[in-house]
Amino acid sequence: MKNLLLALKMILFLCGCNLINADGRNNAELENQLLTYIQGKDARIGLAVIIDDRDTVSVNGQKEYPMMSVFKFPLALAVARTIDLNGKSLDETVDICADDMKENTWSPMREKYGRESITLSIRELLEWSLKQSDNNAADILIKYVGGTENVSALMHDMNFPEEIVISVTEDDMHRVPFLCYRNLSTPIAMAELFNRFNRLYRNQSHTCSEIALMLEECNTGRDRLAAPFIGSGVIVGHKTGTGDSLVPGRISAINDCGYINLPNGMSYTIAVFVADSAYGMSETSAIIADISEIVYGHIR
Hints:
This protein is an alpha+beta fold. The chain has one domain: DD-peptidase/beta-lactamase superfamily (Beta-lactamase, 3-Layer(aba) Sandwich). It is built from eleven helices and nine strands.
């Protein structure tokens, strides 16, 4: 039996597959579990998992999904790149005018400061954007790096997966909601970006190491990827995305993507996108939590 397993591993290696990893874990079994779970769900679901930087499991992993506020993670990396290139730090300040504090959009920052002209550090703006998913903070950061075109240029400079596209702001999406379908990613691309961040960026840049702490203190969507780990000591760094009902009876997207670092030293990244969901907010979030539990149960 041992020789048969070794032979099977060699065949899969020669075929370029990673269905059975070095520890004998059958990742095809995980893929089948995930396929079975999402079958029949009245939503477009795509997901990808990268285990210990080597094994990838995905379902609809190459398809495009609207990122919603998940885009604030690659945006944060573009901000970090700008700061590092210019020899600045997160203590650099930005002057914010009252018009930047848009009304009728999700903005705990505006609730705190009101529609006043203020000065805030890049660090605080990133905290509002990543920890609270503040829309005004994100748009101010886009303006700081020179607009969406410069965000794209910075992403290209950092060799981000080309499937990650940021072309509109939160204000754009607020004025024309269907523009949310222009900020796109595939699950595999986002899982790859989080994997690269967790393995490399956070250790190469002090700015990125601070961003990692913000992701690990994310206050939104604790009923999604993080649900199986609450109180467990597992480190979860993630960014959520939450859409509206653009079509009656459908939520445009509920997403959650991030990295999971286990106490035993193992780690994996996971991206889950649930688009055009016929379920309510809590039910759609529960789909992501269930997927997170299935993956964790397979890996631990």
